Amino acid sequence: MGAAAVALLVGLLAGLLTRHASAGTSDPATGGNATTNSTSRPNIVFIMTDDQDKRLYSTDYQPVLQRELVAKGTNFTNHYTTQALCCPARSSMLRGQQTHNTNITNVVKPGGSYNKWVLSGQDTDYLPHWMNAAGYRTEYIGKVMNGYGVSNYNVTPKGWDHVDGLLEPYIDDYNVPIWSANGDKPVYYPGWHQTDVTRLKALDRLDVLTNQSDPFLLTITPFTPHVAYEQGNPSSRPIPLQRHMEQFLNATAPQTPNFNPAAAYQTQKSGWLQYLLPMNDSAVDFADFVYQSRLQALQGIDEIIEDVVAMLEAKGVVDNTYIIYTSDNGYHLGQHRVPGGKSLFYNEDTNIPFVVRGPSVPQGVVSTLPSLHLDLAPTFLSIAGLNASSAAWPPFFDGRSLLDQWQAPLVNNATGAGHGNSREALNIEYWGLVGIEAPSGPELGGSYYNNTYKTIRIVGDEQNWAYAVWCNGQTELYNISADPYELTNLARADNVSAEHQRVINRLNALLMVTKSCEQERCRDPWAQLVPDSNSSSSSSSTTDTVLYSLVQALDEAYDSFFADFETVQFDTCMQYQWADNETPFFPPLDTLDGGGLGRAWRNETVDIAASPGTRSIQTPNYYGTAAQRNATFAQMDAASRYMTEAEIAATIG
Ligand SMILES: *[C@@H]1O[C@H](CO)[C@@H](O)[C@H](O)[C@H]1NC(C)=O
Ligand SMILES: *[C@@H]1O[C@H](CO)[C@@H](O)[C@H](O)[C@H]1NC(C)=O
Ligand SMILES: *[C@@H]1O[C@H](CO)[C@@H](O)[C@H](O)[C@H]1NC(C)=O
Ligand SMILES: *[C@@H]1O[C@H](CO)[C@@H](O)[C@H](O)[C@H]1NC(C)=O
Ligand SMILES: *[C@@H]1O[C@H](CO)[C@@H](O)[C@H](O)[C@H]1NC(C)=O
Ligand SMILES: *[C@@H]1O[C@H](CO)[C@@H](O)[C@H](O)[C@H]1NC(C)=O
Ligand SMILES: *[C@@H]1O[C@H](CO)[C@@H](O)[C@H](O)[C@H]1NC(C)=O
Ligand SMILES: *[C@@H]1O[C@H](CO)[C@@H](O)[C@H](O)[C@H]1NC(C)=O
Ligand SMILES: *[C@@H]1O[C@H](CO)[C@@H](O)[C@H](O)[C@H]1NC(C)=O
Ligand SMILES: *[C@@H]1O[C@H](CO)[C@@H](O)[C@H](O)[C@H]1NC(C)=O
Ligand SMILES: *[C@@H]1O[C@H](CO)[C@@H](O)[C@H](O)[C@H]1NC(C)=O
Ligand SMILES: *[C@@H]1O[C@H](CO)[C@@H](O)[C@H](O)[C@H]1NC(C)=O
């Protein structure tokens, strides 16, 4: 069916003018004045799924992703989010900043939410505004941010030339798709599955965008494979399109070495994790069922990729378009005994799929060069032709452009940020509660627990570590090279070897830098740690030593410098980032412009409004039929209707 669908689409589009050939014609979207440019800057199609794992092999089950993006582009295996939760990951990506600087640190207030994003003023100064200023047309289709819904749909996400967003509380009911385009009243698509609506909307806009001559950024953010609301009840799986429900019925959740581990390992964990009971057979069966549902649901994503690539090909612009595929954060299913969910610093949750196809990006290459979501905004700006010296380059970026690394993905200087193409130290953080995404019960989860922590992760050729400090004071250290599944906690208080204490001392100091870093201090944290001459012995005799990697920092000449460093700590477990709860800081916050933590570039957020929502529309049906695979946007649009005033009132209460 895939190949047939491509053939159909290409057939429909055959003979149409290409984007370059049509340059100079009027722009149907803006009503005129498209600029002729036969050497146009590249377009960007950014596809970001929701809660898709890399480490549970979900992408192996997406044949179109494999054929069109992995085989024709570069697969970056060390791409990370710095916070494994939707709203923080998305706002961090859109601002090019760490979440301690956006202070969008959870999905609900006071940590986060769409209303907090707007109140902070960050929505007046982020990616689409910058891309617009650089001459790009910017459009957005899909999930916006947690808390954007029927209660505040008319607080239109700013900056986009066109934005069509999924609305809460219906966003997690795949069979009740309700959207708002550019702040217009909520539109309901009865009889349609959300993933088909997302696909047809994206294609409809891509048709417009490829008919005009400005370069464009099209962001497509499907809600799939996030857990759903299903037939009147919260579910703990995504709901696939009806036409995919018979696939993968024999698939089982990968029982990785850290799946449902023995007590000897589990009791080495911290916080709420150390008390989890083993998953019983019901929980293991449920993980299999969820895994099957996720693979089924992702077939709808493969159809989006298939149709997007087919249209770019038919319009003749595929070779001048970067197509980026990723997820906001990862997912675990039974790893470390957690039946389902995200929010942890372990690799399953933070290391995510990341594939790039586009101009000068080598085909069929696998690269281990690390990168972060917060590098994407600078990367898109550099695709638009800007650089860090440009007046239009935002001053507050914590990330850096990945464009060189995309175009030379096998060049690895391996010496850390600021030194060539590689980045070694990744800051990963979290504030607030965590919910286990599985039915309630001691073996199946469902409760909410304190999950505030700070982590530094070293990703390198020689050294790979994760070091975490929890809000209750417990710590974890994993030697990822020897223990890739993060089972043996080397930081247990009663059993820390001298060798591991030396590593902890270095990683603690590095985390002291990254937990509050801004700008260059995030890109090159080692350079902030300057051992004085007194602590150096024979191997380094100057006072201006600049560190740039863990290998180098492990020199025993620096032992006392690192042993004496102030330590990362919390006063108590809070649900949001309160600076006084997290002292000390390095450098001290009062020595920084605006008080640090990004506060120079955002406003205070007091009295964040709630986003009420009660479902007034429900359906017992499953949509996404076989025939709907070939339906047109016009057919879907004809079936749509505005929500009634009564339905809106009943929703927002
Ligand atoms: C189109 O160009 C004309 C002449 O340069 C200008 O007066 C007009 O404002 C432009 N229209 C738009 C929509 O940019
Ligand atoms: C065409 O695009 C290139 C690359 O961005 C730019 O350098 C050039 O100035 C543009 N030419 C015109 C006529 O806009
Ligand atoms: C990228 O390569 C890694 C290592 O081979 C593999 O595990 C991963 O599934 C690949 N990603 C995709 C999207 O295929
Ligand atoms: C913060 O608020 C002030 C006053 O309302 C406003 O001028 C400024 O633009 C805001 N800053 C940000 C980053 O939103
Ligand atoms: C794009 O251009 C083609 C060829 O002119 C036309 O058939 C199609 O309707 C256009 N699409 C839009 C959305 O304007
Ligand atoms: C599942 O496995 C059984 C037995 O191996 C096989 O008969 C059946 O076709 C498989 N079902 C699917 C959906 O692959
Ligand atoms: C950066 O952009 C400026 C113009 O904004 C340009 O003069 C300079 O050459 C660019 N630098 C690099 C390294 O491309
Ligand atoms: C390492 O990085 C430097 C500076 O960016 C660059 O000049 C050099 O070519 C790189 N080395 C390799 C082997 O790529
Ligand atoms: C597993 O635990 C759940 C929750 O306590 C319970 O409902 C279920 O019966 C158990 N399953 C088995 C196979 O023991
Ligand atoms: C989280 O920790 C705080 C501080 O120790 C405590 O007051 C609160 O009850 C905890 N919340 C949960 C859900 O455990
Ligand atoms: C983060 O947001 C919370 C809630 O609005 C606020 O109380 C806190 O002061 C903020 N933290 C920082 C560092 O701005
Ligand atoms: C969709 O269209 C293709 C190409 O015409 C056709 O081969 C396929 O059977 C159609 N699928 C359905 C379910 O109608």
From TrEMBL:
<feature type="domain" description="Sulfatase N-terminal">
    <location>
        <begin position="42"/>
        <end position="385"/>
    </location>
</feature>
<keyword id="KW-0378">Hydrolase</keyword>
<dbReference type="GO" id="GO:0008449">
    <property type="term" value="F:N-acetylglucosamine-6-sulfatase activity"/>
</dbReference>
<keyword id="KW-0732">Signal</keyword>
<keyword id="KW-0325">Glycoprotein</keyword>
<dbReference type="InterPro" id="IPR017850">
    <property type="entry name" value="Alkaline_phosphatase_core_sf"/>
</dbReference>
<dbReference type="GO" id="GO:0005539">
    <property type="term" value="F:glycosaminoglycan binding"/>
</dbReference>
<dbReference type="InterPro" id="IPR000917">
    <property type="entry name" value="Sulfatase_N"/>
</dbReference>
<protein>
    <submittedName>
        <fullName>Alkaline-phosphatase-like protein</fullName>
    </submittedName>
</protein>
<dbReference type="Pfam" id="PF00884">
    <property type="entry name" value="Sulfatase"/>
</dbReference>
<dbReference type="InterPro" id="IPR024607">
    <property type="entry name" value="Sulfatase_CS"/>
</dbReference>
<feature type="signal peptide">
    <location>
        <begin position="1"/>
        <end position="23"/>
    </location>
</feature>
<comment type="similarity">
    <text>Belongs to the sulfatase family.</text>
</comment>
